[in-house]
Structures are given as structure tokens and as C-alpha cells.
Design goal:
The chain has 179 residues and is α+β, with helices and mostly antiparallel strands. It has six helices and seven strands. The protein has one domain. Strands 1, 2, 3, 4 and 5 form a five-stranded antiparallel sheet that branches. The chain has a two-stranded antiparallel ribbon with strand order 6-7. The longest helix is centred in the C-terminal third of the chain and has 21 residues.
Length: 179
């Protein structure tokens, strides 16, 4: 540290206070939600990890992970134009009436120091917000809904989908889950 250029405020001495400073910065810049091109607000979850650097043993590597997600009902997906009620009748039936969790792939950013990570996020987050706002995510949301329905059906959780298939053998009706 150069003594002729001392910082105007105290230097952060712990990871806890650094995390508190990050959260304060995020709340001031309001990156808790990002609105997409359809006017739907996605929740932003950020986590920070500090690992030893491979380059310099005396420094740490900061990793920021950004996760965008939302829980949407089928009616909201129809309202936004993501799902068409006439063409996607079977998908709507399989999705049921509950909320569908939609989670985007995690974005990961690395930096060699706290200040470098701050610089990366100051540059990346506004760009991400603007790109997200410009884009209609119909195809991505539709793929996430299809993946959610497929995942529940393939693991035998048809009761969560609100679907009950029946087999009629001519004499009696048997629920398909019992056979």
C-alpha cells in the first residue's frame, strides 16, 4: 500500500464485510429483478466464492455466479404469448394449474481480486439487463416448460403434473399408476 495515497474510507478487512459491501452495492443498483422483453420480472440470485488463485499463491480468485429464475403459472405464459392455447393444449394439460419453476443456465464470472470482480460486475450486469430487456424469451421459456414437464413425467411424478391416466380393459377402469 502506498502511504501517500491512503484510501478515504477504511479498507475492508474480512470476507463478511466484503459480502456486506457487495450486497449494499447490489441493493443500490437494484439488480434483484430483471425484466424481459415480455414484461416479466425474473429474480436474480447471486453467489460469490473466493478460492485460491492458480497464478499467485498469495492472492485469491473471486467467482460470481448469477442465476435467473421465476415461477410462472400457465395462465401467465399464455398471457405473454409463450404458449398458444390452441396449439399447445396437451402441454397446458400436462403442466397443470400450479406454478412452473423456470431457471436459466447459471452465468459464471471470474476475477483475480475483489476490485477486479467489482469492475467485471459493474460492466456486465447493466449489459445483461439491457440485453434481457430487448429480448423476447418465448423459445427459451417454452423449452424450460417442456423440460420441466418431461422431467416430472420421466421420474414418475405424474401426480405433480395434475394428470391421471386411466386404462379401460372393458370391465373396469384402472388408474394407470397402479398397473
Amino acid at each position: 500500500m502506498e502511504f501517500d495515497r491512503l484510501p478515504s474510507k477504511p479498507v475492508i478487512k474480512s470476507l463478511t464485510s466484503a459480502q456486506a459491501e457487495w450486497e449494499n452495492w447490489l441493493s443500490q443498483n437494484n439488480f434483484e429483478f430483471m425484466r424481459d422483453g415480455d414484461g416479466i420480472d425474473w429474480q436474480v440470485a447471486m453467489t460469490f466464492d473466493q478460492l485460491p488463485s492458480e497464478i499467485d499463491r498469495h492472492k485469491g480468485k473471486w467467482i460470481a455466479t448469477v442465476q435467473l429464475g421465476i415461477d410462472l403459472s400457465v395462465s401467465k405464459l399464455i398471457e405473454s404469448g409463450t404458449i398458444d392455447p390452441d396449439q399447445d393444449e396437451r402441454l397446458i394439460f400436462l403442466a397443470g394449474t400450479g406454478k412452473i419453476p423456470l431457471r436459466m443456465k447459471k452465468l459464471r464470472y471470474e476475477a483475480l481480486g475483489e476490485n477486479e470482480m467489482r469492475d467485471v460486475l459493474v460492466r456486465i450486469l447493466p449489459e445483461l439487463r439491457e440485453n434481457f430487456r430487448k429480448t423476447s424469451l418465448h423459445s427459451i421459456k417454452r423449452n424450460l416448460v417442456n423440460r420441466w414437464v418431461d422431467g416430472l413425467a420421466s421420474f414418475g411424478q405424474k401426480e405433480r403434473l395434475g394428470v391421471e391416466f386411466t386404462i379401460n380393459d372393458g370391465e373396469s377402469t384402472i388408474p394407470a399408476t397402479e398397473t
